[in-house]
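Reading a protein record of the kind used here takes only a little practice. An example makes this concrete, so a full record is given next.
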Amino acid sequence: MTRTNTNPYIEQGILDDCDNDYNIVSHIRTLVNEGIHYCKKHKDMGALAYNDHLFDNVITKLDSILADHVSPVQNQIEEGFTHHER
């Protein structure tokens, strides 16, 4: 029987893996959030008046990246922390 919900930070990783990867994922999250903030700020300033839909499209995509890709990995890492700090 194959497991579909495996967590490599629990099954294979060590605490150092969690620390290192958490730092990277947190930095990625920060950069994506900065992109969202940048778009919102410039949209509010009226930039790209003829193509302001670009901001909404980019914000939506960046939100999806956070929700679909960054958050699940961050959750796995946090579960790894909990497991290794027992």
Summary: The chain has a mean pLDDT of 93. DSSP finds three helices and no strands in the chain.
